[in-house]
Amino acid sequence: MTNNLRGFELLADVRNNKGTAFSHEERETLGLRGLLPPAVLDLDDHKVRALANIRRKDSDIERYVFMHSLLCRNETLFYRLVIDHIEEIMPIIYTPTVGQACREFAHIFRQPRGFYITPNDKGDIRTILNNWPEKDIRIIVITDGERILGLGDLGTNGMGIPIGKLALYTACAGISPAQCLPVMLDVGTNNQTLREDPLYLGTPIPRIRGEDYTQLVDEFVQAVQDAYPKALIQFEDFLTPNAYTLLNTYRDKILCFNDDIQGTAAVALAGVYASCMKTGKAFKDLTVMFLGAGSAATGIADLLKVAFMREGCSEQEALEKLWFVDVGGLVVAGRDDLMEHNRPYAHQHEGLHFIEAIDTIQPDVLIGATGCPGTFDQRVIRKMCDHNPHPVIFALSNPTSQAECTAEQAYAWSDGKAIFASGSPFDAVEYEGKIIQPGQGNNAYIFPGIGLGAITAEATLISDDMFLAAAKTLAHCVNEEEFELGMVYPKLTRIRDVSLKIAVAVAQTAFEQALTTLKRPLDLQAYVASHMYDPKYI
Question: Which alpha helices (DSSP H) does 177-263 contain, by range?
């Protein structure tokens, strides 16, 4: 043990509690005799019991509540369970269940976890950060709850997202939970239902905007630079205009990134790279169409543009490979309803509806980031098949209920020809006697490795080339067996090894671009691996 806790104080300590795994000698020394049942069980025994408890629950939201309670009482067991059973547990602690958990956050609340900032804290943020018990914070995930997944403004209920993301940083990339800080920027909510809910835990006011909002965010960012100078800030689930404003304001000043924009971009790019290995098409020859023009879709396009340029395209040639369709139809020059981040992709072309646009542009890849289920209907999939022997269909909206189409629909409507990936998990599909495993383009393949690489290299900034390196590394992690199953992403069971490879590529990029003052270790992979947390009872 690394502290002086004894008795019930030790059993209540989430980081050091190991319950009935305390030996008889430890019980004698630490004042635990009589406080525990007499049997001594190990971590494997605890996993067996926890799994049995999870599996007897009637719903995923009850499983989520169980796992969150476990996280708040025995951190080691929680992470051991997630790591060893990640395919079963990740959909419970993150997408798709986290969407329902955020909707119901105030009603299933058990114990506080994370850090809350309100407009009343203006001028005091640096001071109140001292209340957080850990001082060596390296990863911060912050949201203001305005655009949670595809569910909209959930206010302070959105705290489920930073908590879930940081759990994945630890489980998928081995970043110590002691170095993680989930933050809710509670600036009110425009969700009237939440404001009128007597159990709502946030500030029940309309959202603050403008200078008041900007100043609060900036005070937080500057407070972090002082309190945790080596911390990476991940901006998460901000409304598109704020997401771009914050990213553009801070990306060249501090260690930060926006996962919805850049993380989603890298995982999508990795899937596109991998799809080329299946279709035989050269990446630089692809044409890509997006349905949806929010931060996720334009973030993907921005990184694809950089990737095309690295393949020898001019910027204009790269832009001409990227097309958008939104609620107003094809994004073209002359439309007066476009946001600033959409304008580079507004081509000189006649306006077209979605189906007409597919027929005219003939994209090789169709990417959905709409938050609107059913928008990739049978006509859309059939039309993609008219122009591609193996159309690439990515339905990336989360949670599963918001996906543009299901895996089963994509395969059935394409006669089994589609190369499909989604943002949330779908079960394997049997089509004409063949089992096809859809890929899950989950950001968990990217952001944990980005974070691990950045903090172990003590990077000063996150560059586009780090995301390119991450995407290429992820694509090359897909093995022949996975390709044969129809996957364009590796199995989740390999995610810690994948995250390590991505972290090494990111750290290497930091050294190559002089974005760190550290001296490069002789064995970079061993150096990064040595920083990975492995949950065990001590």
Answer: 192-195, 210-227, 240-250
Give residue 425's domain range: 262-443
Tell me if residue 326 falls in helix, strand or coil. Answer: strand
Domain assignment of residue 311, yes or no:
yes
- CATH classification at residue 345: 3.40.50.720
395 three-class SS: strand
Between the alpha carbon of residue 343 and those of residues 323, 346, 382, the distances in Å are 11, 5, 30
Question: Six-digit token pair at 444?
Answer: 């968990």
* b/e code 91-118 from CB counts within 10 Å (16+ = b): bbbbbbbbbbbbbbbbebeeeebbbbbb
In a domain, 234, yes or no: no
Could you give the CA distance from residue 216 to residue 205 in angstroms, rounded to a whole number? 16
Residue 186 lies in a domain: no
pLDDT in single tens digits along all 538 residues of the chain: 557 899 999 999 999 999 999 999 999 999 999 999 999 999 999 999 999 999 999 999 999 999 999 999 999 999 999 999 999 999 999 988 999 999 999 999 999 999 999 999 999 999 999 999 999 999 999 999 999 988 999 999 999 999 999 999 999 999 999 999 999 999 999 999 999 999 999 999 999 999 999 999 999 999 999 999 999 999 999 998 999 999 999 999 999 999 999 999 999 999 999 999 999 999 999 999 999 998 889 999 999 999 999 999 999 999 999 999 999 999 999 898 998 889 999 999 999 999 999 999 999 999 999 989 999 999 999 999 999 999 999 999 988 889 999 999 999 999 999 999 998 889 999 999 999 999 999 999 999 999 999 999 999 999 999 999 999 999 999 999 999 999 999 999 999 999 999 999 999 999 999 999 999 999 999 999 999 999 999 9
Assess if residue 173 is contained within a domain: no
Which residues is 125 bridged to in the sheet?
none
* 190: three-class secondary structure by DSSP: coil
Catalytic residues: 94, 165
Q: How many domains does the chain have?
A: 1
Model-wide pTM > 0.90:
yes
